[in-house]
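Dear colleague,

Thank you for sharing your sequence with our group. We've completed the structure prediction you requested, and as agreed, I am returning the results in plain text so they can be pasted directly into your records. Please verify that the sequence below matches your submission; if there's any discrepancy, let me know and we will rerun it promptly.
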Amino acid sequence: MSADTDGTADFAEMYRAHYPEVLRFVRRRASPGQIEHVVAQTFLTAWRGRGELSHRPRVWLLRTAREVMLGMDRGAGTRSALPVRIRQWVDLAEDDDGTGCGEDRTALVHAWQGLTEADQEVLALHVWERLPDAEAAQVIGCTRIAYSLRLTLAGRRLASLMA
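Please find the predicted structure tokens below.
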């Protein structure tokens, strides 16, 4: 990174490198009307704290985006958009052989909706974001061991609900 005094060039580089991933992360969790606001608020927070950002800001940005969404949910008294997003994702997904697997998709949607928001979050970080356990743990604010345990238990609950 460059040695600019106010961090503008470093921030611009970080923004270009991480904007697409932050946008995908937020799109999977927020309602369409909230996406731009959450992403903008995430990067505004990063700009304000640019002197404190580590040389690896990925986890920091995803955690900040998550906190912005949680704050919006608390403020509006609404639930997370994750259950809605899994339905959209499953509805849009196509299986490889083109035969369709509507019953499997419907079962997945119903099972997903039967999970707690905490279970949905750990599974989403693992499946959608493909974050390593240590990074996913940092995003939700727990230890890697706790995250791994939560992921295992959430996977078991999802499998049980699918059965």
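Summary note from our side: The longest helix spans residues 8-27.

Kind regards,
the structure core
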